[in-house]
Amino acid sequence: xDDNNHNxxxxxxxxxxxxxxxxxxxxxxxxPLKSPSQAKNKNxxxxxxxxxxxxxxxxxxxxxxxxxxxxxxxxxxxxxEKLQIFKQGEDDDKAAxxxxxxxxxxxxxxxxxxxxEEEKRCAKPEAVKNNKKxxxxxxxxxxxxxxxxxxxxxxxxxxxxxxxTNAILCPNxxxxxxxxxxxxxxxxxxxxVAVGFNSHWLNGIDCISHAGSELSRAYNLPIAVVIxxxxxxxxxxxxxxDIVYTGxxxxxxxxxxxxxRDQVLEKGNLGLKNSMDQCVPVRVVRGHExxxxxxxxxxxxxxxxxxxxYWSEKGVSGFNVFKFRLKRLEGQPLLTTDxxxxxxxxxxxxxxxxRGLVCEDISYGQEKVPIPATNLVDDPPVAPTGFTxxxxxxxxxxxxxxxxxxxxxxxxxxxxxxxxxxAKLNGSNLPYVxxxxxxxxxxxxxxxECGPNxxxxxxxxxxxSQRGLKYRLEVYRTPKKGWAVRSWDYxxxxxxxxxxxxxxxxxxxxxxxxENNYIxxxxxxxxxxxxxxxxxxxxxxxxxxxxxxxxxxxxxxxxLDAGPTGNVARxxxxxxxxxxxxxxxxxxxxxxxxxxxxxxxxxxxxPMKELSYDYAYALDSVVDPDGKIKQLLCYCxxxxxxxxxx
Length: 646
Ligand SMILES: [Zn+2]
Ligand SMILES: [Zn+2]
Ligand SMILES: [Zn+2]
What we know:
- By secondary structure, this protein is an alpha+beta fold.
- It has two domains: about 30-40 and about 360-615, Beta-clip-like, CATH 2.170.270.10; about 65-90 and about 170-340, SRA-YDG (PUA domain-like).
- It has helices at about 35-40, 50-60, 70-85, 90-125, 125-130, 150, 155-165, 190-195, 215-220, 265-275, 420-425, 505-510, 525-530, and strands spanning about 185, 205-210, 225-230, 235-240, 240-245, 280-290, 295-315, 320-330, 355-360, 375, 390, 395, 430-435, 440, 445-450, 475-480, 480-485, 495-500, 505, 520, 560, 565, 575, 580-585, 595-600, 610-615.
- Strands 1, 2, 3, 4, 5, 6, 7 and 8 form an eight-stranded mixed β-sheet that branches.
- Helix 2 (about 50-60) crosses helix 4 and helix 4 crosses helix 7.
- The structure holds zinc ion (ZN) (3 copies).
- One zinc ion binds near residues 407 and 414.
- One zinc ion binds near residues 414 and 422.
């Protein structure tokens, strides 16, 4: 046990990370910090468009549907692709990564929307009877898409919605897909379709078979570009780098999956033969059982393979099946699928397992789940010091708290958004679904949760962020970024991770404190109004009436100071491509100026991945006491890093 430093109240004060600077809520917002030189002139903010935003726009202009009419740009790109199968430009990859992330976020927004519809239907007594069996998809995704069961699947509905809005990324790609690295994990096959990795969520062999495309001149179509190995066929053989894959057709997709007739050299089978004849690389995906995934499986992209031979033989069931031998191409990252059940990292089983443990629980029992701290960087290893852990907001003596909100008249759970007054405040719909312990459907300008005067109970769907810490978080030391936070548990997108806890202060009082690194301005109102270049994020809501509303005084009036007292949120670092987002939440009262600040998962976050959010500084907005502009380099390592934190 590395216990030497456990109770070490030594003189080593906390080494503050360059990242631990003043933060601001509101994703992608650009805001100035209030400083003496800027307070008089509100229009001095330099608005820098973030790379992320550029990329997002670009994704919208990329032709995305599977429609026959390919745009010029797409033709050109497909032509290029043939040459660039193995060499993707680094810049292209960076942009592509953001495009893929954005497509997944769109997919989950629609997915959660349809989950909510399903939950509403199930909440109605009449519907419960008809719905009993089908509320959850079965393992293995072997349901027929056209059946009524399929129609209830929110992920497939999300795909339809994405298709309608041209949000699906183009699927006709040969070789590696920009933005999707070897080892990338998908939580369903619908996800793979959303990002253009596959063109269909059910086929084991994915082919390009469009006539009329640039590809049809270059290749003899169909060609197979993806195979999914998920134990669907009884005859598959998988030796990782060397696969014998059974062709498609002649087996039952539902039930026992056994062959009941001979396979024919058509469709996917013909595609694989054509890919062999024309040296077209095939992306190989393997499916594994996984409890965290909503379909019960996780799919890992294992890289490019080439088809080296094929033959026909009598299968286990006595019918003719096609066999394709595939070999993995050289020069790719090593295969990890067969060793790793779910995530890339090794998740510790218990706190006592931890290497470099410096504190068993930095919350000293205040959180429902202990938060260990580890340090494998410093010698001797030190624990985080210089602050007192606290899991509820402290209020400065100069701050007057607003009156408690009236609340709704519901009882039990606020399931009926038509009668719940809290639901009305959120734009007539509750912002959360109950699935996976509660998920926010999409980021909003502000979320109105139920509060102390509401008739509903603590289990209400509209109190998701009030339930305290749920995931096993670990605070760990990094070489360049100070302390950081990761989760041992898988976190689904939209799940609340933690609230930013500190002392509620007036910003005027805080400006007098030099070098305070843990201040979070509550700029919910400024974000809603789009002031100072902040991105508006209204989500169909109107701005509530605010007393003494005066645009001239646009700087945030209150902030949270997590310097001397705070919770685990104070250790979460900045990233230019974060996996968390900041959400303003109102529950006790309805004063936006004192909104709660809660961090939610923006993506499905695999275990052991660093948690991060965008501190959202405007460049050149931080000024030292002499009025000089301060700069700080960003080490977030994101593909679209802005290179400077401020
Ligand atoms: Zn409620
Ligand atoms: Zn209610
Ligand atoms: Zn309520």
